[in-house]
Amino acid sequence: MDRFARIxxxxxxxxxxxxxxxxxxxxxxxxxxxxxxFLDERRGSWRDLNVPDIDGRTLHELxxxxxxxxxxxxxxxTGHSTIWIGWALAKTGGRLTTIEIDPRRHRIALDNFxxxxxxxxxxxxxxxxxxxxxxxEGPIDFVFADADKDWYTSYFDALWPKIVPGGCFTAHNVSxxxxxxxxxxxxxxxxxxxxxxxxTRSRAGLSITCKQQP
Length: 214
Description:
Layout: H1 3-16, H2 19-22, H3 30-42, H4 53-66, E1 70-74, H5 80-92, E2 95-100, H6 103-116, E3 122-126, H7 129-132, E4 140-145, H8 152-159, E5 163-172, H9 181-190, E6 194-199, E7 206-211
Parallel strand pairs: 1-2, 1-4, 2-3, 4-5
Antiparallel strand pairs: 5-7, 6-7
């Protein structure tokens, strides 16, 4: 089975997994127990446009299932999705670059990463993603976009050439009919080297676009 087939199988397994079955990732190390305790303590208290638990778990499982190691997040907020992604990358031996423009949210996120024990795998940048994203170097195998929706297409176009075959570009709030979303969905669905799935287990909707093998 080639890598794209493995990704497709992993996506199918994640998308048909009942929410209850995905609720508690296995905690089999000191770091796992620390992150799980951190998330349990803050369950239901995330604000500032953070992702719901089900979408955080989906990102985590997608990274684990495919061994992704070179990840980018656009829109840290206060770090809920970042912690799920960083936790997965701690298991695969990877590293995450995450970008936030708001200084207050950035400071809170840094405290959260340290409290969860994940600051060693997260490179948190206080920056304007419009300027920084085009400057990021590849190879990249995982992207999560959760920032200004009318720039999703620009983020995709800037990073897609740097994503390796088998890598995935994911984006949040794709079911919310926000400005720029139709253009973005048309773009990812028409990309000739991509396959897109929309996970609607949360009201927000999560798109998962993976690059096919040549």
